[in-house]
Amino acid sequence: MIRCLVLIFLLCAGSLFSQVPSPAAPQTKGILLKNATIHNGRGVVFEKGEIYFENGKIIYVGEGGKFEPETSDFSEIDLQGSHIYPGFIALDNTLGLTEIGAVRASRDHSEVGEFNSSLRSIIAYNSDSDVIPTVRSNGVLISQPSPSSGTVCGQSSIVQLDAWNWEDAIVKEGDGIFLNYPDINSYGWWMDEKQKAESKKRKLKNLEKLEKFFSDSRAYYEEGSHKKENLSLKAMGGLFSGDKTLYIRVDDSPKAMIDAVQFAQKFGIKKIAIRGGKNAYVVADFLKESNVSLILSKMHSNPSRNEDDVDAIFKQPAMLKKAGVDFCICYDRGYTGQRNLPFVAGSAVAYGLSYEDAISAISYDAAKIAGIEKNYGSLEEGKSATLFVSTGDALDMLGNNVTHAFIDGRSIDLNNKQKELARKFSEKYGIE
C-alpha cells in the first residue's frame, strides 16, 4: 500500500513540471510596441509602425513617431524590425475538447444521437489542455471548439486561448450550430453497386428525418410560447431569428454544397456558412449570389476531380478571392494540428493569394464569419489588443518565431511542454 502511495506521489510530482502556464494577469499599464512592420488584418501595412494599447484596448496603430501616450507610466518595447499580426483565429476544431485521441475519456467532441442541437460544446472545453499553449506559440489566439458527431451536432462557441476555465475563455457563446449534411451522392471507394444503393437509401432516409426536424424547429420558433418546453427545438430558434449561424459541413461535392445551401434557405435561415468546400471554386458564383460564407479546409490535399490540375486545391483561395466569395481558411478538423494554421495560409500565398489577403483569411475574415469582428480579427483603434509579434514571416515555418503575444492586452506566457522538452534534450546532447 505504501509503495502504491509513493508511486502515485512521484507521478503527480513529475506532472507538476509540465503544467500549463497560468493565465496572464490583466493589463495594468499601457504598452507601446514600436519599430515593427504592422499587418492590421484588413490589408493595411505600416512599415516601422507602432501600436499602443491600454486596459486591453488598442488606442493607436499606425506610423511610428506620430503618437505620444497621455501618461508617462507605460512600457515601451522596441521590436527592431519584427512583424505584428492580429491574433489568428482557428474555426471548427476540437482544441480543448480532445486531449489524447487514443483515450476515450479525454474525447469530448462527440455525443450519441442524431439531433443534438441543444448540446453546448463549451461546457466540455478544457482550458488546461496541454495542447493549447503549443497552438498559441504559433500565433493562434482564438478558437472555435465545436461538436462533431450526429447529423445536427450541437452548438459551438468562440474562445480566447488564455483562461482559468471555460467561463473565462468565452468570447462569444453559442455562435452557431453545426450540421453534417448527408451527401446522398458520395460513396466510399471500396463500395460495389449494391453497397452504393444501400448507402444512398440510408442517406435519403436521414435527409427526410432532417427535413422534419428543421420543419418542427421552425414551427416551434414561430409559435412563440409553449406549454411544454422542447430543448432540442428551442435551441434551433437562433437560426431562424438570425442570432446564430448554421455551419454546414460539406467536403468535396459542389452539388452537395448547392443542395445544402438550398436546404437551409428553404427554412428561412439567415446566416449560412459552408465548412469544408474542397471544390467550392466550381460553384463560386452560386456561393456569392447566395451570400454564403465559406470556411475553407483540406488545403493540403490532392484534388478529388479527375479534370483538375494537380495544384487546384492550393490555387482555390486565390480563385475564390477573385470571384468575390466571403471565405476564411481553417485547418482540418482536430486539435494538435491547429498550430499549422498560419502555414496553410502561407501555402495559399505561394499559389496566387496576396500576402495580406492570406493574413485576413485567418484573422479578420474568420472573425466576420464567427461574428466577432467588432472586437477581434484586426488591429484597429478601439478593438481588443489581441495580437502577437514574430521576428520573421508568421506564415512561413522558418520565419514564424513568436516572441510576444497579447490577449485582450494581457501578456501571454509562450512556454509549453514541447519547448520544455526541446530545452531539456538540447542541454543533454549539447545542441545549441
The sequence of SSEs as H and E is HEEEEEEHEEHEHHHEHEHEHEHHHEEEH
> What is the end-to-end distance?
45 Å
Oligomer category: single chain
What name is given to the CATH topology of the largest domain? Answer: TIM Barrel
User: Beta-strand percentage?
Assistant: 15-25%
- Rg value: 23 Å
Name given to the CATH homologous superfamily of the largest domain: Metal-dependent hydrolases
Q: What is the CATH class designation of the largest domain?
A: Alpha Beta
H/I helix tally: 13
Runs in which pLDDT lies below 50 for 5 or more consecutive residues are 4-17
Q: Indicate the mean pLDDT.
A: 91
Alpha-beta classification:
alpha/beta
**Biggest beta-sheet profile:** 8 strands, mixed
CATH architecture of the largest domain: Alpha-Beta Barrel
Total strands: the figure is: 16
Shape designation: globular
Number of structural domains: 2
Q: What fraction, in percent, of the residue positions are helical?
A: 25-40%
Question: What labels would you give this structure?
Answer:
432 residues, alpha/beta, Urease, subunit C, domain 1, TIM Barrel, 2 domains, eight-stranded mixed sheet, 16 strands, globular
